Amino acid sequence: MSLRYLLDTNIVSWPYRDPSHPIVERLNGALEECAISAQVWHELRYGVFRRPRGRKRDSLEAYMRDVVRASYPTLPYDQPAAEWHAAERARLVARGVNTQFVDGQIAAVAHVNGLIVVSHDARGFAHFNDIAVEDWING
Q1: What pTM did the predictor assign?
Q2: Which CATH architecture has domain 5-134?
């Protein structure tokens, strides 16, 4: 199977927060089709590093190692992604639309790899051209 989906941070972290949620079954069923971007890895790791040392941080570290790193390849934000992101950002700013910089980076990684973004915050990606978004939490 080939990659089809690029998971946003809120999707990757959801099973940790709620292991009984139906998203877990959906992610397991599409495991070989999913990846994350380097930006998502950064956001996840940043969340871990901000926690004080202790059981909660150890549990998050184990989830990052045993689930996220073991399950999802990490795709880079490379030159083609940066080029697409710059053009989209300029287009949107000219229209008076401001987006989160990291959402633009994730959208760019999805675009250059021909992937569907899976996010619980579809509105963060709504203004970008040629980006398909699915919300596996609400539908």
Answers
A1: 0.94
A2: 3-Layer(aba) Sandwich (3.40)
